[in-house]
Amino acid sequence: MKRWLCFFAVLAALAVALEPVFFTIDRIMVFNTVPRDDYAPFLLWLAHAPGGTFPGSPYGYRILTMVAALPLYHLLPPLHLTNLPALTPYYVRATAALAALSYLSLIGAGMLAYRLARDRTGLPRPDAVTSGVLLSLLILYTQFFGIDPFAVLLITAGLYLLPRPAWFAALIIPATFANEKIAIVFALWLTLRCVTSSADRRRFTAPCLAALAAIAIYLAALLLLHLPGNAYQLEPGGYPATLLANLRASISARGLLLNALPVAVLLAIGGLGWRYAGRQEFADLFRPIDLLMIPALVLVALVLTQFFQTGRLVMHAAPIYVVPAAAAIGRLMRSPRDTGQRIVPSLRQ
Hints:
Layout: H1 2-17, H2 19-30, H3 40-46, H4 63-75, H5 89-121, H6 125-138, H7 148-161, H8 165-175, H9 180-196, H10 198-225, H11 239-250, H12 253-276, H13 293-304, H14 310-314, H15 318-333
Helix pairs in contact: 1-5, 2-5, 3-5, 4-5, 5-6, 5-7, 6-15, 7-8, 7-9, 8-10, 9-10, 11-13, 12-15
């Protein structure tokens, strides 16, 4: 209890100390300075406020993210930004609530990565801090001015809860309706683990089944509710054409920046962790086979998204790689005589 009270106290302190980041996110969103998915009307619909509309697919299935933002809509004071375009106060308030959710999620994901490093792999505090900072920086490759940071936060929470299958299932199944990328990441990762390792099959069968059940529930929702929009995602015959269109877009300057660069960065971070961090210490939670997750997510993005979404989708897997990468950075910065063997707790403990 003391540990988690400290966790939320530090989260509150960082939220106050780093408030310029929040205003930067809010301004990016409210001034529409970059292309983004606008969820403010969805939040207004949930709040029964003027200007609210229920969105189509896939946005309408992410209703639990709006539920998470709803308290912020009611609690945040009005923010009087200068040079605002002609927007209703309800829209400005909803956008600020979504910006606050992304901002708090960005900080919270980093702090949860710190706890993951400390509690699940026994890393020393400096290395654990590095893992948290690294994850927060990698979130900037996602649509951090949207709802992606909240999804990364829930993925990090899922990694932390992995030793407790019941708690993991209680998170992963409803989280599918916060963002379907959460279930996609865990279903791919845990299936890969269970297929390639008998030890992982014994350890991760229950979480893997929970992740696959989450995917099945999401697909059932797609078929039963059938919200309008993005119909190509339910037409496998069109996947080759979507794949080719996305590959053409990826070789443009914008594609290289938004698609290829984040993938290369995550591959480099993953490779750094497995090359220098050592493997045995992290065998319970991290294995070199996890690097195959990156091309698997690239393929999913190329057939299920359009144009410039590959990099941000792949970066949702960043929580898997930041802990070994942080350990590697710590070892490279210390002299050889200071990097003695450290006994770490098992994931099963």
